[in-house]
Amino acid sequence: MATDSCISLVIDSAIALGTVAVAVLAIWGERIRAALSPPKLEIEAHNNFRGDPNILTTPTGQQVGRGMYFHLKVVNKRPWLPVKNCRVLLMGLSRRGPDNIFHRSRLVVPSQLVWAPASFAPVLVTVTKEQIVDIGNIQEGDDAFRPALYSTPNNFMGYVKAGEAVRYELAIEADNFSSNRNIVVEVAWDGQWQFEPEKMENHLRIREIHEP
Description:
By secondary structure, the protein is an alpha+beta fold. 18% of the residues lie in helices and 42% in strands. A hairpin with a 5-residue loop joins β4 and β5 (102-105).
């Protein structure tokens, strides 16, 4: 009888522990998973930094110009942990000087890059697998590559004109994630414009810089 009582006690205890474990996971499961394996986001090239040609039209469909748009993507390496209220920030920039050395330019406050598609995407997004973000564009007839920012300061020094190169320092910020280092992306342009991506990439180059 004593043996039966011990077995019954063990079974009841196991059931009680299982019930508590289920309740704990239901309430704090996401936090436990985040503590054991925290979210991990990375910024990667989209379409190998090749531009996306786009014809600009009015609401009535009249063509008003052509542009070449360039994108990055934010990739969630642990998609079982969605990253909420995510944004990509321009934290700093450097311009290539006449000595071919990149020098820091003034950037008073960080600015946010625009999520794609710009017409529909909210300012803050939840990243489960991946999300495309605009890095910038250049319009036919324009004199510079322009980063895609929700707000651009009047004294912004980050435009890339003919013969210039600029490096952009980017970081990811979210409710449950923050970059531990900035990603550096360099844009260089020789001043020529093409509507075909294969030709345009010979004139405007984008690459990630791996700094020591």
